[in-house]
Task: inverse folding
């Protein structure tokens, strides 16, 4: 492991504070799933004190990478970073299933990868169900629900967002900041409305928005799973799309998905480590990445909450689920609330623990469907307590997880992105 | 040692197959507690019983085989109490995490040992009740661990330590039989006070499987003050002066200048350059009484030589003061991960001598030193900050630790206010206890655990 990761390991003083915030530990109550337990395990492995690595792999998979432990740690030990590195080492030593490897290293990085994957799923659900083993990476996003029920596979958009002919340029001609929109898999293939809404909102607020061609999956699922080769290929491709050599960088890079944005802002240089020519450019690009709600609030001149919490009781009720990568990855909880409380005719209500992970957590649901479901159930309960009919969020993983959970639990609640809520309820710049 | 197949089958029959952990990776995660720098020592198996009867059955089996039993809550102890130094079986209370009853009429709670301390506090607060004991790790640590270590915290000044809240308990003894001690009343003199013996026994006399805890009404209001002093001794002297003035604050916390710098608190609290120590004082009670006490504390602090006394204007500001105070320990551990952290306690009138003496010891040993802690009850956490690769410095720090304990005992105090002895302080127990007292304790241990299977190798040095 590289020295930076080892330094993180050594900063742990075993105080156990992390155990009070870990959502997985709350359900499982075993030291091995806690941040401290994982750090001690990895330390033991580094010292050669572990033989068989199967159980290690199992315990390492039981991490949502949600970052709550890092936020609460008195010494700010970056557990997600350590877990990613440890998973990558396991992958290097052949601990990734063949299919999982194919998905993460070949399919997702390839131009039409996810489209093929989702298309396959839609075309033939029984083939999908019968032919794909339960532990395969093909279920990367579409984890199996416990009790045998298959998770609903979202329908594909007829034409992916990035394959559409560019419409009339959003925003004013000439002036206004130039914003590159990183679309992400879910907005591209499953829900182009989210990308459209994001582009339209930013355009209306004065930005010149373009979605650079050639971009792909952000690579975060691959990075989180330790599939470094796949993550590196995607990072390289996205760097070429968003910041081609010699071209002027956009003023800002954003995405309807905070996890994609977090990948670009926080992990691009890490994924490209070992390619010195690219790392510098990746750093420059990373510095320009701004989460969608932060950028829109800035452009719209919103610096405080609007009157939405005091809207009349008969107005439709909206709540927000804070994605891990927004609330902790970017440390941002205010901007989405500035936006959502500014919407006319909508009552905004916060749920209890809005920043707690929804249970999606990259490939977590793949390895631990029951746990993912337990965390999801808790999330559903909190959301229902608000009395909201609409749940906004800003991450494609959260989006899929919530859409699936809320439908299966028969809540009648609808999920939408921050941008979609803004567009639907007539959000306007200051 | 690997868990034998026969023993594994037996254990699985007792607790269920999923509740026996024997994989090397799982064992590593139960091979330590929060003791700084202590090496890992994996057990042979980790057992997660779901009832008192299962705990007892495990111990019966262990007794028949002569296997060591180490009870473990959340593993946040600081002296190695939960380290399985002789292997054996760790009995984790993680599944015994239910609050069995909150008795509003008698102000009591009946809990299983794995309940997290803060969870009990939150649950009783919902009924307007108060469980005051607040160890640093209250968000993580468990009541079983608190009982076994007789844990304290800042509020000990006014509210005492865990012992004051234990009314009765059920424990599995060394032969695997369950016994009940104490009574669910505020007083009871029916025979020996075995409950007091179990509390603080570090799992060496029995494994507590259930406890009845005393609750208080939640104080209506709280006030928090910060007092900054230009001298360590003046700050220490202000503690006794406060109590003599007729005010018993809920907490009086002390942080010296080195510890303040460690958390970057000098800037956050806008402290001047010359500040050598601060006291964080919390008063609680009915609102008018809190206002009166806060004024009284302010006057005492001024008279004791404080350069500045500020009353937190809002709960948020008070929370910030407490956060700064709570970050000191872990932040020091970050600066010097191999700090030697000792928790001596002295009679409060001797605090100025203790604080001055510790810094003198550090100077003479040429070791960096930071002190903070629960000054209100005379309990000071003394931290010698060392570089583990510097063997010579480590040796000097070791001498400083011994000198610190000798100082505490000479001042009429104790070598441990709340962390216990475990493995970390064994060599020093004889500084405080005479041979006859130690002998009596060993006799108790031998009588209750003749095979020495309950947390062997703790508290007393092994022959």
Result:
């Amino acid at each position: 492991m590289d020295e930076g990761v080892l330094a993180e390991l050594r900063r742990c003083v075993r105080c156990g504070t992390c155990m009070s915030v870990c959502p997985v530990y709350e359900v499982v109550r075993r030291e091995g799933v806690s941040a401290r337990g994982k750090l001690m395990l990895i330390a033991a492995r580094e010292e050669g004190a572990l033989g068989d690595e199967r159980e290690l792999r199992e315990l390492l998979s039981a991490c949502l990478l949600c970052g709550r432990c890092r936020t609460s740690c008195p010494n700010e030990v970056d557990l997600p970073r350590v877990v990613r590195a440890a998973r990558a080492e396991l992958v290097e030593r052949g601990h990734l299933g063949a299919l999982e490897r194919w998905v993460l290293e070949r399919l997702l990085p390839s131009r039409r990868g996810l489209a093929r994957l989702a298309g396959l799923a839609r075309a033939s659900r029984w083939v999908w169900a019968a032919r794909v083993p339960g532990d395969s990476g093909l279920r990367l996003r579409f984890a199996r629900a416990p009790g045998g029920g298959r998770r609903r596979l979202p329908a594909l958009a007829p034409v992916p967002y990035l394959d559409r002919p560019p419409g009339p340029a959003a925003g004013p001609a000439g002036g206004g900041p130039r914003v590159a929109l990183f679309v992400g898999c879910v907005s591209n293939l499953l829900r182009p409305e989210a990308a459209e809404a994001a582009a339209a909102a930013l355009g209306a607020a004065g930005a010149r928005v373009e979605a650079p061609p050639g971009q792909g999956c952000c690579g975060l699922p691959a990075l989180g799973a330790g599939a470094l080769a796949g993550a590196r290929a995607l990072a390289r491709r996205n760097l070429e799309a968003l910041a081609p050599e010699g071209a002027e960088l956009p003023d800002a890079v954003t995405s309807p998905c905070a996890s994609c944005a977090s990948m670009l802002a926080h992990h691009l240089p890490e994924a490209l480590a070992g390619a010195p020519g690219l790392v510098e450019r990746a750093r420059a690009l990373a510095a320009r990445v701004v989460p969608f709600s932060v950028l829109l609030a800035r452009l719209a001149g919103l610096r405080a909450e609007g009157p939405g919490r005091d809207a009349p009781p008969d107005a439709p009720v909206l709540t927000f689920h804070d994605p891990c990568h927004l609330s902790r990855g970017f440390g941002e909880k205010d901007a989405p609330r500035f936006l959502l409380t500014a919407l006319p005719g909508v009552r905004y209500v916060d749920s209890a623990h809005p920043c707690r992970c929804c249970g999606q957590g990259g490939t977590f649901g793949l390895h631990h469907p029951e746990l993912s479901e337990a965390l999801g159930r808790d999330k559903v309960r909190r959301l229902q307590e608000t009395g909201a009919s609409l749940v906004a969020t800003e991450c494609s993983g959260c989006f899929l997880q919530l859409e699936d959970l809320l439908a299966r639990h028969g809540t009648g609640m609808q999920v939408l992105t921050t941008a979609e809520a803004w567009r639907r309820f007539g959000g306007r710049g200051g | 040692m690997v868990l034998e197949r026969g023993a594994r089958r037996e254990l699985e029959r007792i607790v269920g197959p999923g509740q026996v952990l024997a994989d090397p990776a799982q064992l590593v995660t139960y091979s330590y507690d929060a003791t700084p720098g202590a090496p890992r020592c994996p057990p042979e198996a980790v057992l997660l019983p779901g009832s008192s009867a299962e705990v007892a059955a495990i111990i019966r089996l262990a007794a028949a085989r002569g296997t060591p039993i180490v009870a473990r809550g959340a593993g946040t102890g600081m002296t190695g109490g939960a380290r399985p130094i002789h292997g054996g079986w760790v009995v984790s209370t993680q599944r015994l995490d239910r609050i069995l009853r909150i008795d509003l009429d008698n102000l009591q709670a009946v809990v299983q040992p794995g309940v997290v301390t803060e969870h009990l506090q939150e649950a009783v607060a919902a009924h307007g009740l108060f469980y005051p004991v607040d160890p640093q790790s209250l968000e993580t640590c468990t009541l079983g661990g608190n009982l076994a270590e007789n844990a304290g915290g800042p509020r000990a000044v006014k509210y005492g330590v865990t012992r004051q809240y234990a009314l009765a308990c059920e424990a599995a003894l060394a032969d695997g039989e369950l016994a009940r001690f104490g009574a669910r009343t505020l007083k009871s003199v029916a025979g020996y006070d075995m409950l007091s013996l179990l509390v603080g026994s570090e799992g060496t006399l029995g494994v507590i499987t259930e406890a009845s805890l005393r609750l208080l009404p939640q104080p209506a209001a709280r006030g928090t003050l910060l007092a900054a002093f230009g001298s360590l001794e003046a700050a220490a002297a202000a503690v006794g002066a406060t109590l003599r003035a007729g005010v018993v604050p809920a907490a009086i916390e002390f942080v010296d200048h080195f510890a303040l710098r460690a958390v970057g608190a000098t800037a956050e609290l806008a402290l001047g350059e010359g500040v050598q120590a601060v006291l964080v004082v919390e008063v609680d009670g009915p609102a008018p009484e809190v206002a009166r006490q806060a004024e009284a504390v302010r006057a005492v602090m001024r008279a004791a030589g404080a350069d500045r006394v500020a009353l937190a204007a809002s709960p948020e500001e008070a929370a910030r003061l407490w956060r700064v105070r709570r970050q000191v320990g872990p932040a020091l551990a970050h600066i010097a991960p191999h700090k030697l952290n000792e928790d001596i306690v002295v009679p409060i009138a001797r605090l100025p001598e203790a604080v001055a003496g510790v810094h003198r010891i550090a100077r003479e040993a040429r070791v960096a030193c930071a002190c903070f802690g629960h000054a209100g009850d005379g309990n000071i956490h003394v931290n010698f900050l060392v570089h583990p690769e510097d063997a010579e410095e480590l040796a000097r720090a070791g001498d400083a630790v011994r000198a610190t304990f000798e100082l505490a005992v000479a001042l009429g105090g104790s070598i441990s206010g709340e962390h216990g002895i475990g493995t970390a302080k064994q060599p020093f127990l004889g500084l405080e206890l005479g041979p006859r007292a130690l002998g009596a304790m060993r006799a108790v241990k031998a009588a209750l655990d003749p095979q020495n299977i309950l947390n062997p190798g703790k508290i007393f040095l092994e022959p």
